[in-house]
Design a protein that fits this description.
This protein is mainly α. It is built from 7 helices and no strands. It has 2 domains: 50 residues, no CATH class; 63 residues, no CATH class.
Length: 135
């Protein structure tokens, strides 16, 4: 299986941010702004405006995903496929991809199908049940 891309904007240019803008971004993220949460995760993952820090990236991407951000959900699915910063777990990957696909993310839908083909029927049944309960 081809590992799903972690972030949509892989070729974004380095964005030097002012201290004021960074603080504003943190403020928004901490107040529940899912776009700001995802942006902080992305910036920490690629080192844009920050040193690269996968623990911090994961913290913010997971928060955005749990708050319904579809790109963050696809990212969490990809992380569970690869084991990048989280336990490698195809059931978890399926659930995250399903959540993103349910919001119209076609790439997540393809990722969900790909993960489903890798699981035995009993694990796929568990994944589908969890996705329907949580999705």
């Amino acid at each position: 299986m081809k590992t799903p891309r972690m972030f949509e904007d892989d070729d974004a240019e380095e964005d030097l941010m002012s201290e004021e803008r960074l603080q504003g971004l943190y403020g928004k993220a901490e107040s529940g702004d899912v776009e700001a949460q995802y942006e902080l995760g992305w910036r920490h993952a690629v080192g844009s405006g920050f040193d690269m820090d996968d623990d911090e990236a994961l913290k913010w991407v997971r928060m955005a995903a749990e708050n319904g951000h579809r790109l963050a959900q696809n990212n969490m699915g990809a992380r569970h496929v690869s084991g990048d910063g989280v336990e490698k777990n195809l059931v978890e990957a399926y659930v995250w991809f399903y959540k993103a696909a349910s919001q119209g993310d076609r790439k997540a839908g393809k990722n969900c199908d790909s993960v489903a083909r890798q699981m035995p029927e009993d694990r796929l049944a568990v994944a589908r049940q969890r996705a329907s309960e949580e999705g």
